[in-house]
Design brief:
It holds the Pfam family Prok-JAB. With about 130 residues, the protein is an alpha/beta fold. It contains three helices and seven strands.
């Protein structure tokens, strides 16, 4: 059973907001790094989607490199993040269609908020977030 609360550092939240602001009007995206129910870092990735204003696709090489680093003893790939520059911080119909149900965490950066979700077999489950100073 998955925990419904995760811990996120203030530095991660700041980075997510900064990446979203930098990429707008396109969607930013990247990888959430951590362990257990804790997100300790965010690794930006190029958005290689054909239409980055409406979709996101994490650069495959960045993802491969993150998994290799985890196998070598680095932080695990806890999930992914992306922004909705003009929309709310909730999974869109496209997000739901593209989700794999692998149990990873998704962070969605909207116009006014950052929310966290578990990508489960039954769909997205909203997670509460406990902020930890870094």
């Amino acid at each position: 059973m998955w925990v419904m609360e995760i811990e996120v550092t203030s530095a991660v939240l700041k980075r997510l907001r900064s990446e979203a602001e930098r990429a707008a009007p396109e969607e930013c995206c990247g990888i959430l790094l951590g362990g257990g129910n804790s997100i300790a870092d965010a690794l930006p990735a190029a958005n290689v989607a054909q239409d980055p204003r409406r979709h996101f696709e994490v650069d495959p090489q960045t993802l491969v490199d993150a998994h290799r680093a985890a196998r070598a003893g680095g932080p695990e790939v806890a999930g992914y993040y992306h922004s909705h520059p003009m929309g709310p911080a909730f999974p869109s119909a496209t997000d739901r269609a593209m989700a794999s149900g692998d149990g990873r965490i998704w962070a969605i950066i909207g116009k006014d908020d950052v929310t966290f979700w578990r990508d489960g077999e039954e769909g997205f489950l909203r997670l509460s977030c406990r902020l930890r100073e870094r």
